[in-house]
Amino acid sequence: MKNSGKPNQATSDKAALAPFGEASLHSWIVHPLTVFVLVWLAVLALYMMHLSAILQFNNDEAIQATAYIVIPFVVTFFLGYQLKSKKADKSQQDELASLDQELARIDKKVIYWFRIWVCITIVEIIVCGGVPLFWLVAHIGKNYKDFGISSVHGLANALILSIGVTKVALYARTREKRHMWMALGVLLWAITIISRNMVIVMLLEGTIVWQMLRGISRRLIAGVLIAFFALILAFGFVGDMRTGGADVFRKLAQPTENYPDFLPSGFLWVYMYMTSPLNNLIYNGEMEKPLYSILLPSTTKQLFPTIIRNTVYGENNDALSEDLVTSTFNVSTAFVGPYKDFGWMGVAGYSVLNALLAVYFWRRRSLYHILGYAVIAQCLVISIFFNHLLYLPIIFQLFWLYQFCVLPRKMQRKRGKSTSVSAISPASLGS
């Protein structure tokens, strides 16, 4: 009998379930230790090259600062992973076995919340008088910071990001193109409101989810690397235009004699944005005296909506802002807030928190935990720049994902129990 070239149903089912196997889910590419340790070691290696005069601290200081971040994470992750429960593993396997039955319910919930997001966004567009991309094209004197309703916009952004990453998971599971189109629509919306942060978050989380559910081929990895280098070139081109040319940026970046001048300007841009946050963190360690405040104001200031944050910390939060080596490069990693609150012990403690969350989501295999891990892993990558873990528009995705993936199932089980109890009436007992 000739082979038709099409897989039989058993083979298809096996392939569909394969992404949830140990080899796929626990791929080293998206493993927490890979994600966190490699990005920080890459930053340290770049810093130790000292290709810019702005990087004013020696290698020992850079190594010490990085050690306070990386070592507590690694130790905590290993210890936390040893607490893995076999009973929990079995329940998660049972949950995965019935996942396909849950997809329709999850999709229905996503569409429900998407309609709510559309209503919120329409109100924001009306109140703000348009969208940032239109303002840019029409040369209206507004920018992306002028868009959105205070205390609502961040939660709405978290909602649409959650919808986008869930749609990536649904597409990876079902291969229905309607899911892919909605995920691409989220990217398009991020571009429309000129939110580079949303674009980066969506791309990172989507890639992590796809790797965990389907795996990434060598061909795709090669394509991603090519796209990455193209992005570096584009980043330099756009940056040069914004600053007035490559020569202007070189004066700001102050490359040393060791910097390879033959590289396109995009590489200098990326180098400075990769290394200057660590430079600023060490600078704060040299210049700032920690607050030693149990309220952790510098660490948690972005965790609350604007109204609450202004009420608690005041509208002028300059006292909670970090010091900068130069205002041109104004990010200081996710750990500058913990340092300001409790010094280097605060940095180590915050690294422990990152590890605990990473191991919690990584070792569980439900769809909610896979999506939740994508959020946490994205925070680990971005930790070399910002504190996304305690940034409300990002971390609130965990709440929305819970609404999509967990709450509907719990409500269904509760209704099932209620039906079973009501069926056992006094009359039936007496008959």
Report what the structure shows:
This protein has helices spanning 9-17, 22-25, 32-49, 59-81, 86-97, 99-128, 132-137, 153-174, 177-192, 196-213, 218-243, 246-253, 265-287, 297-300, 306-313, 336-362, 367-382, 392-395, 397-405, 407-423, 426-430. The protein is built from 21 helices and no strands. The longest helix is centred in the first third of the chain and has 30 residues, at 99-128. The termini are far apart. It is globular. The protein has one domain (15-409). It is mainly alpha-helical and 431 residues long. The relative contact order is 0.14.
Which features does this protein show?
71% helix; mainly alpha; 431 residues; globular; disordered N terminus; disordered C terminus; 21 helices
* Oligomeric composition of the shown chains: single chain
Helix content: over 70%
Profile the largest sheet: none
Radius of gyration: 24 Å
Helix-strand topology string: HHHHHHHHHHHHHHHHHHHHH
Q: So how many helices? A: 21
Mean pLDDT: 83
Number of domains: 1
Beta percentage is under 5%
> What is the total tally of β strands?
0
Give the overall form: globular
